[in-house]
Design a protein that fits this description.
The complex is a heterodimer of chains A (320) and B (271). Chain A contains 11 helices and 16 strands. Chain A is of the alpha/beta class and 320 residues long. In chain B, 24% of the residues lie in helices and 34% in strands. Classes of the chains: A alpha/beta (320), B alpha/beta (271). Chains A and B meet through α1 and β5 of A and β4, β6 and β14 of B.
Chain lengths: 320, 271
């Protein structure tokens, strides 16, 4: 048996292990993302960067709910020109960097992608799915046609791998994933937060200033895992799993569902920075125990078993 | 009802006390705040307006706790205008808080920094320590908790005003430097304007004294998640707000010089 390795190649992005932070989590400044990397992540994902500085929404921007958190940060970011220097700093520190980005139009998406490419990012994550700026920017990922168009425009401006991050708040995520693939996406990140609301019974009003927010954490895991399952069956490009990954067992579930890599967000709130290293080590221990030497051997395995089960059931029903 | 300190609950103000010019204390009963540690903060929610981090200025006096608000903006003006019986939302307390260390600590407070150090003074006095406390302000009418500190510390209180209207005439950091030169201290605590704290830290480093300084940044999630309050590799909301000497050395490039604005751009610190 060959030596066990956690290294992965996700559509050309090479990582020492498949664990990254989720966009918007700790991604404001280079030193804190360096700490994510030093804590054992395979690479980092920046805060979503747009064409102009944004302060984000007024507090409260986060509220704790059962098994997770609801947030409406509102895409605060210093703008692509400013953040280009931050990406250079991260690359100077030797950190594999995925630059998350967004725009308000096809042209803006393409323009920001071009700048972040010039800044030296290793890959781009096209945020097509922030649920908290729908009034201002709309939600791109709700419309398959737009996703294809924007992805194609971005691909024209960059030689980097482009991951398109999708929303679970759609009728058919498979259709949107296919549209991204047709547009030239190199991978799909599934998924962004699930839209929700929290209401305070004493004040009798929504807690978040933005009224609604995005649900994250263990509460969304079964939904996000199902999205990864469906997307990985719908497209031929790699899938990056995101949604409630807290332990190595969560991570392995995502790999088995078809994810080639993982993004960990809310778990840092409950488990601290060490969660990145712990998950990576846990995946390694699972692989060692079960005789796998490379992560990609695990990816999607549950689909085979799923097909077996289905055929057995079919046979049973025939017999009956 | 909330079952963890992270969840928001409504508290009714039991008392609203004007401390001095621009400073108001809001008292409330909350079981989680009553179990807070000196140097920790709560997130105070004014529904429909904002949610802001506020250090606990009193912890568990007969079950009651307080925050002390300096009226400087929309949110703090609204808080200062509240009356007994009014409700605010709170979550927390969050953050690391101070570690009570040393028998002869020097404490240096500027402006609203006097609020977060008050519970520490109480705890350290109870532990038998003999603090010397520099209470600094621009002018005599802005000395926060002067009577409270006088009662607790007696001669241990050193008043300092920038304009010389009471006590030492000059910056609190300069007053602290002179005290450090005289010696006799084994630990330094400081909370207040960052330019004051950076001076205090510099002088304490020269004197070989360990420092704990409480930093202020824009706090959004208060959960260590969003990174809005990052200073170097640290999150003020979770790894702080209290930074020790080792952490302060690591953030030398930012401490006393820049902070992130709400969009994540580095801008000069206020004071």
């Amino acid at each position: 048996m060959s030596k066990l390795s956690l290294a992965v190649d996700v559509a050309g992005l090479r990582l020492r292990n498949p664990v990254m932070n989720a966009a918007g989590v700790l991604g404001m400044s280079p030193p804190i993302l360096k700490r994510v990397y030093d804590s054992g992540a395979g690479g980092v994902v920046t805060k979503s960067v747009g064409p102009v500085p944004r302060k984000g929404h007024q507090n409260p921007t986060l509220v704790r709910v059962s098994c997770g958190a609801l947030n409406a940060m509102g895409l605060p970011n210093p703008g692509d020109d400013y953040y280009s220097d931050e990406i250079r700093a991260l690359k100077g520190m030797g950190v594999p960097t995925v630059a998350s980005f967004f725009g308000g139009s096809v042209h803006e998406f393409a323009e920001v992608a071009r700048k972040l490419t010039e800044a030296g990012a290793d890959a781009l994550e096209l945020n097509a799915s922030c649920p908290n700026v729908v009034d201002e920017l709309g939600m791109l990922a709700a419309d398959a046609g737009n996703v294809e168009k924007v992805t194609a425009a971005v691909k024209d401006e960059t030689r980097l791998p482009v991951f398109v991050k999708l929303s679970p708040n759609v009728t058919s995520i498979k259709d949107v994933a296919r549209a991204a693939e047709w547009g030239g996406a190199d991978a799909i990140t599934a998924v962004n937060t699930l839209m929700g609301i929290a209401i305070d019974v004493d004040f009798r009003r929504p807690v978040l200033t933005n009224t609604t927010g995005g649900l994250s954490g263990p509460a969304v895991k079964p939904v996000a895992l199902r999205c990864v399952w469906e997307v990985s069956e719908a497209v031929d490009i790699p899938v990056i799993g995101c949604g409630g990954v807290t332990t190595w067992t969560d991570a392995v579930e995502y790999l088995l569902a078809g994810a080639s890599a993982l993004e960990v967000g809310t778990a840092v709130m409950t488990h601290g920075f060490q969660v990145y290293g712990e998950i990576a080590e846990g995946i390694g221990a699972y692989m060692a125990e079960n005789g796998f030497s490379r992560v990609e051997e695990v990816v999607g395995l549950a689909h085979d078993a799923g097909r077996d089960t289905k055929s057995k059931v079919d046979r049973c029903s025939i017999r009956v | 009802m909330p079952t963890t300190l992270e969840e928001i609950r409504r508290v009714r103000l039991t008392d609203v006390v004007s401390e001095c010019k621009d400073f108001t204390s809001l008292w409330f009963r909350d079981p989680w705040a009553a179990e807070g540690r000196p140097g920790q903060y709560i997130m105070a929610w004014i529904p429909g307006l904002d949610e802001v981090p506020m250090s606990l200025s009193t912890i568990d006096e007969g079950g009651l706790s307080s925050i002390t608000v300096r009226s400087v903006g929309e949110a703090t003006e609204a808080l200062s205008a509240l009356e007994p019986g009014d409700g605010i939302g709170v979550r927390g307390p969050f953050g690391n808080g101070y570690r009570a260390e040393g028998r002869r600590p020097l404490m240096v407070a500027g402006g609203s920094g006097a609020a977060s150090l008050a519970p520490l003074v109480k705890e350290m006095l109870a532990g038998g320590a003999k603090p010397t406390f520099v209470l600094g302000a621009r002018s005599s009418d802005q000395l926060v908790f002067m009577d409270r500190y006088r009662k607790m510390l007696g001669d241990g209180l050193v008043v300092s005003t920038d304009d010389g209207s009471m006590g030492y005439s000059g910056y609190a950091s300069r007053c602290a430097a002179e005290l450090m030169e005289r010696g006799g201290f084994d630990h330094v605590y400081t909370c207040g304007p960052e330019l004051m704290m950076v001076m205090v830290f510099r002088d304490a480093e020269s004197a070989g004294l360990p420092v704990q300084a409480s930093l202020e940044r824009f706090i959004k999630c208060a959960s260590g998640l969003c990174g809005a309050c990052a200073v170097g590799p640290y999150r003020v909301c979770k790894d702080g707000p209290v930074f020790d000497s080792a952490m302060l050395r690591e953030i030398r490039g930012e401490f006393g010089s820049t902070k992130m604005d709400l969009s994540g751009r580095a801008v000069p610190v206020d004071h």
